[in-house]
Amino acid sequence: MKPVIAIVGRPNVGKSTLYNRLTHTRDALVADMPGVTRDRLYGQVEYQENGYIIIDTGGLSGENAGIEASMIEQVFVAIDEADIVFFLVDAREGLTPYDQTIAGQLRTRNKPIFILVNKSEGLQNSIIEADFFSLGLGQPVAISASHGKGISGLMDEVIAAHPYPLQDEDLDNKALRLAVIGRPNVGKSTLINRMIGEERLIAFDMPGTTRDSVMVPFEKDGQRYTFIDTAGVRKRSRVKDTLEKFSVIKALQAIDLANVVILVIDARDGITDQDLTLLGMVLQSGRALVISVNKWDGLDKDVKDHIKRELERRLHFLNFAKIHFISALHGSGVGLLFETVNLAFASAMKQFQTSQLTDLLEHAVQMHQPPMVHGRRIKMIYAHQGGQNPPLIVVHGRQLDKVPDVYTRYLIKHFMKFLKLQGTPLKIQYKQSENPYAGQKKKDNRSESQLFKRRRHTRQLIKKYGGKKDKRQSSRK
Q1: What is the CATH number of the domain that holds 337?
Q2: Domain check: are 340 and 362 in the same one?
């Protein structure tokens, strides 16, 4: 298995900056204030055809109460998981008593440790390294995570001690990416912990516990998943803190990154305007969707019936998404989510033949013709698939720029029904086809046999898909 590297240290020494530098991403939030990272954040490092898993952790501040205690527990779980520890210290602040305390705790773990003296740009390496040599954890390495100084030399040392050449399977990412979104304190982290059967994320009864979009790899029944736990999204008028604004942005980016999105709703609050805003963002992105109504346990029947009526009334536009009523804390209903997620993902990634889509388009037109525009009927000729996740159907024809929205919604409903898509939206794109006979006198050169074949094809479509031909359609002569 790939070696695992854990980055640990006091708050604000540059752990997340180093994580971003090594993973070539901006997955970890970086701000000039302590306590930004709270959960374990997993990433991939590739350097000179070697690969590693790296974990960013929260800062060890010495506090042992409330959420700080949970953060400390997460850090030491990461250390236990790791094969290598990057212990970050601050060159500009020098050696502190708490650096010495952390060093003492690391020595008991019996792990290979690299002391990384960060923020060393502009300073003499020999002097700053000597200051931390007294920790007794080997030769300190001067680096600058923000400027990239010393990073290549560091990774050369790691590869020399722990080589892991990349294999083909390491480059093939087939994991189903699953983003869990919702308002603050609705139980997103608790749900992920319940689904994977491990206390991987901090679940604390306080809004805003999760600030980053945290990646959590997991495998079940041969299917690989990557859970994305996101920060709770509040109304913009309530987002005052600069750091929280970045959290909201990363939560929205997680929607675009995901294959399937689980929206978690608090049953005790019902469906709120902010929930509807999040649903609109999911629809705009085109991602497959599963809705989980959490904290369902303990509610009486009248309250449950009222919530179901409200969901049906306010979420009528999401008839493709399945709703689960669950308790993430106690586990009731959570096991059924995997089946729905897998079905939604399979629907989002389906592939269709052009002949199948064209037949369905012709059937839809026969059932209800497009409207007339300036005395001419909108013409739809054929359809083909233009993309996946969400499924995209490209319709070719003439005057398609004048197709009304109501007819587009009819086509979407028609394709969704006969393609048996569940859990994913479907998009239709129109592509204008030029009429090669524009300006010429209309002339029907079709033979009787061609007209007969056309009528027979129409009867076959109606027999296959059901329904009756639109009575407004005039018969061919």
Answers
A1: 3.40.50.300
A2: no
Under-70 pLDDT residues of the chain:
1, 27-40, 61-71, 166-173, 198-214, 229, 231-253, 434-455, 458-459, 461-462, 467-477
Residues 202 and 331 in one domain: yes
Q: Tell me: the pLDDT tens digits for 22-77?
A: 988 775 554 444 444 445 677 778 898 898 888 888 777 655 544 455 567 778 77
How many CB atoms are located within 10 Å of the residue 84 CB?
18
The residues near 159 (Cβ < 8 Å, ≥ 6 apart) are: 47, 48, 50
Identify each DSSP E strand in 426-476 by its residue range: 427-432
224 and 278 co-located in one domain:
yes
67 inside domain: yes
Q: Which one of 118, 150, 170 terminates a domain?
A: 170
Residue-level pLDDT at 279:
87
Last residue of a domain, one of 347, 369, 386: 347
Are 107 and 198 found together in one domain?
Answer: no
Q: What total of structural domains would you count in the chain? A: 3
| Residue that has been written with the tokens 């997991």 in this structure | 218
Question: Residue 415 is part of which domain span?
Answer: 354-465
- The helix or strand, by DSSP H or E, that contains position 179, with its residue range, turns out to be strand 176-182
Residue 473 included in any domain: no
Q: What CATH number does residue 395 fall under?
A: 3.30.300.20
| Token code pair at residue 81 | 């998981």
Greatest CA span in the chain, whole angstroms? 98
Q: Are residues 121 and 53 part of one domain?
A: yes
Cα–Cα distances (Å) from 264 to 104, 181, 185, 233, 446, in that order, read: 42, 6, 10, 11, 58
Nearest to 342 by CA among 178, 190, 114: 178
DSSP string, 133-160: HTTSSS--EE-BTTTTBTHHHHHHHHHH
For β-strands 50-56 and 113-118, DSSP reports them as unpaired
Domain contains 470: no
Q: Which of 85, 137, 65, 232 is nearest to 75 (CA)?
A: 85
- Given a contact cutoff of 8 angstroms between Cβ atoms, the answer to whether 252 and 281 are in contact is yes
Regarding whether 300 and 158 lie in a shared domain, the answer is no
Note the residue count of the chain. Answer: 477
Q: What is the pLDDT of residue 18?
A: 93
**Cβ within 8 Å of residue 275, ≥6 positions away:** 182, 183, 263, 265
Neighbour-count burial of 25, counting CB atoms closer than 10 A to its CB (0-12 exposed, 13-18 middle, 19+ buried): exposed
How far is the C-alpha of 292 from the C-alpha of 263, rounded, in Å?
6
